[in-house]
Amino acid sequence: MFESFMKLADDSVRQMQQAQDRWMSSLSAAQSGGAVPPQGATPMIPLQHLGAYHQVLGNIAARQVQLCQGLLAAAFRPEPDASLIVDLVQMQHSVLQRLADQQTQFIADLGALLAGAANAPKSNTLSKLMDQEYDFFGQLHDLMSNQATNLVELMESLQMGCGYLVTRKLAGTAT
Amino acid sequence: MPADRSYKAPPLPRFNADLSQSSVSGLSSGAFMTVQLHLAYSGTFVGAGIIAGGPFRCAESFRAAAAIAEDAWELNALYVCMNPLIPQVGPDPVQLANMARETARRGLIDPVENLADDRLYVFTGSEDSVVNSGVVETTKRFYELLGVAPDAIRFENTVPAGHSIITDNPEDNPLPANRPPYINNGGFMQSQHILEHLYGPLKPPSRRLSGRIIRFDQTEFFDGKPQASMSDFAYAYVPKAVEEGAPCRVHIALHGCKQGYNYVNFVNGRPDLDNAVPYGNRYFTTTGYNEMADANDLVILYPQAHGTDNSETQNPDGCWDWWGYTAENPANPDYYSKNALQIRAIHRMLQRLGER
Predict the structure, then answer these.
(1) B11 lies in a domain?
(2) What gap in Å lies between CA A159 and CA A153, rounded to an integer?
(3) Backbone angles phi, psi at B321, to 5 degrees
(4) Last residue of a domain, one of A14, A49, A80
(5) What ipTM is given for this predicted complex?
(6) A91 and A31, same structural domain?
(7) Which alpha helices (H) appear in chain B, and where do they start and end?
(8) Total structural domains within chain B
(9) If DSSP codes are grouped into helix, strand and coil, which group holds residue B183?
(10) What percent of chain B is predicted at pLDDT more than 90?
């Protein structure tokens, strides 16, 4: 039963990587084909971005399957490693702590932004007024995008950390 | 001459330098590079100063992080070597010490046995949110495993500093700050603590500098290769007596990310060329190295890295390479050996200073 699970996980990773390779080569072929404009030309940009997304998301999915495979292997070991559970709980705590810190910082920055908008300097001209309005939305956009990036960074960090930890535990190198 | 480049500076001159008494220090990516340079040429260096840096080849800790090697090294750099969620997923000093021994056995770096009589200054600020203090502790442990005597290591982790080199300049950031230019005011000159630890008791820093900062053409040392991500110019502080022929020693001071003289900030993914950062020259003018050098006949060499962000080299912040962005073969990256582009370049500068 256990070996079937592991084989299934192995096969899934391999198939995902093969599918990704096929997708990337067909994308390259489409981009370099004689009938289409050269790489970097405007009509190809969405296709290139799609390729980049596909590659990164493919990496994430493959990592996730490998992680599940590792966890499964750890769970079925003849002598289960209790320290793995302890470390995973600590990691969860660390993630929650960082999420809370991010949220606190976001609220503080948002408050400062709103206070700044409420106390905007006087505008004597329409151009200055428009500048101020666009500045506000620009700053709001930066704040939101920073928050989103921080969140994704935390997700990547968690996935990396779990994968690294489980791999080390299985190899018997983690303390 | 292309319109966007200024005239070249003169070449780096030769001085009466005793290269067997050389040392190196750096902050952040400069600290990671300090460790690499120190190990690559441990036969030359007498010691190293590491401010907020991780151990040798840390970015290669977990290859399975991504299908593509280049992606894996970058993920390692970010989430294992800079800011791991918990210490158990940080760098493993035993694994990395073994890697260093193996690298030495293959002749890519000097024998690690050379480290036994070296001196080390290792610092992490307790408020550092960029490179976790636990990571820096593994750097200390890594060196101990390679044979550096514990009493030759000065390890500091109690100062409430953010990610920075510490100075006593009132213009610098508050001590706990974690923001550019990563030069914080803590009421003392950290560079002077480093030099005193590495060389033993030194004369107090000069109040008025007798020498001068020289600008030199750095491109000859990396053969102008764009993937080196190094600037056209670099700098050195030369005391007057040394310029007149007095014997000297050399200390290499490596800036961190976003600290090179021509660093350009990226705004919404584009270089903000209209607003050059105002602090580009502070690392080599105001961090206190020059005053100590002046009083003690030291030449301080300040190599410069710059930002590059294209399909070949991803280094927008102008960091020194410690995760393989300069490597020709990412699957087997060389950013750490004597042959690595940046290490070879810096070592060639050092050799020039001691040529007769």
Answers:
(1) no
(2) 10
(3) -85, 115
(4) A80
(5) 0.86
(6) no
(7) 29-40, 69-79, 93-105, 133-145, 190-199, 240-243, 289-296, 341-354
(8) 1
(9) strand
(10) 87
Catalytic residue check, B163: yes
Contact A161 B66 (CB under 8 A): no
Encode pLDDT of A55-98 as tens digits.
777 777 677 667 766 776 776 677 777 888 889 889 989 999 99
Q: Is B196 among the domain residues?
A: yes
Q: How far apart are CA B238 and CA B257, in angstroms?
A: 25
Look at the block and give the residue holding tokens 């495993």.
Answer: B145
Structural domain ending residue among the three candidates A37, A65, A80:
A80
User: B259-286: per-residue pLDDT in tens?
Assistant: 999 898 888 777 888 887 878 899 999 9
pLDDT band for position A36 (50/70/90)? very low
| Contact indicator for B294, B210 with CB cutoff of 8 Å | yes
Listing DSSP states for A123-160 in one string gives --SHHHHHHHHHHHHHHHHHHHHHHHHHHHHHHHHHHH
B68 touches chain A (CB under 8 A): yes
Tokens 């009938």 belong to A35
Residue of B nearest to A88 (CA): B86
Judgement on whether residues A115 and A158 belong to the same structural domain of the protein: yes
Beta bridge partners of B230: B305
The number of distinct structural domains making up chain A is 2
Q: What is the pLDDT of residue B270?
A: 78
Active site residue B251: no
Q: Which candidate from A62, A165, A173 shows the least CB-CB separation from B89?
A: A165
**A124 and A174 inside one domain:** yes
Distance from CA of A173 to the nearest CA of B (A): 8
Q: Which residues pair with B302 in a beta bridge?
A: B235
Q: Which structural domain, as residue segments, surrounds residue B51?
A: 19-354
Q: Which of B205, B303, B297 is nearest to B243 (CA)?
A: B297
Give the number of residues written for chain A: 175
Whether the CB-CB separation of B128 and B162 falls below 8 Å is answered with yes
Is residue A92 located within the same domain as residue A173? yes
Strand stretches in B276-333, DSSP E = 298-302, 308-309, 314-315
- Which residue, among B58, B114, B57, B127, has the nearest Cα to B89 in the 3D structure? B58
Same domain, A103 and A76: no
Question: DSSP H helical segments within A33-125, as ranges?
Answer: 45-75, 82-118
Neighbours of A110 (CB within 10 A): 15
Domain that holds residue A154: 81-175
Residues A108 and A130 occupy one common structural domain: yes
SS3 B166: strand
A164–B78 CB contact, under 8 Å: no
Number of other residues whose CB lies within 10 A of the CB of residue B238: 25
**Cα separation, B39 vs B117, whole angstroms:** 13
Q: What's the whole-model pTM score? A: 0.87
Instruction: Pick the catalytic residue from B163, B193, B251, B347.
Output: B163
Are A169 and B88 within 8 A, CB to CB?
no
